[in-house]
Structure formats: structure tokens, C-alpha cells
Design a protein that fits this description.
Length: 97
């Protein structure tokens, strides 16, 4: 119970400190992330898997804080930030094709 409370407090503080310049749109745009409409079009066309296909597995590793789709080499990848139960922030790149 206490662990859940501490995790919630940490996530709230992290999101407050990160704000728009930390994890939000300013960072994702700088990383070359595609817009939501571009992502939706690629998912609808079948060129990439929807993020929901990966979300369940990611939740087992920690709390997903942010995600976006980007071009990676000849394909696409999701850039994901999550916070593990121990408070560690992890950045992952997951192939989306």
C-alpha cells in the first residue's frame, strides 16, 4: 500500500517537474516523433502496429509515462518512457512494424 502511494507521489512530482519541456510535446517533437494524426493514419493503413499491442506488456514493467511513434531506419518505432516500481525512469525503443 505504501509503495503504491510513494509511486503515485513520485509520478505526480515527475509529471509536474517535466511539464511541457520534460516529457511532453516539446520533447517528442524534438525527437522527431510523428503527430497523432500521422500515427493514426499509419495504424489504419496497417503499416505499424497500434501502441495498444504493446501497452499490456509494458504495464507489467512499470507505469507508462509517455510514448510516441518515430521513423527508425526503414521502419517505425515507438519511443516509450516508463517508471518502474523502484522509481527508475526507463527509456525504451520498440519496433512498431
Amino acid at each position: 500500500m505504501m509503495r503504491n502511494v510513494l509511486t503515485s507521489v513520485f509520478l505526480s512530482a515527475f509529471m509536474w517537474l517535466a511539464g511541457p519541456a520534460g516529457v511532453g510535446p516539446a520533447v517528442t517533437h524534438a525527437q522527431g516523433c510523428l503527430s497523432q494524426s500521422q500515427t493514426q493514419a499509419l495504424v489504419a493503413s496497417g503499416k505499424v502496429n497500434p501502441f495498444s499491442a504493446y501497452y499490456g506488456g509494458l504495464q507489467q514493467q512499470g507505469q507508462v509515462v509517455s510514448s510516441c511513434l518515430t521513423q527508425s531506419g526503414g521502419g517505425y518505432a515507438y519511443l516509450v518512457k516508463l517508471v518502474k516500481a523502484n522509481g527508475q525512469v526507463v527509456s525504451l525503443t520498440i519496433g512498431a512494424n
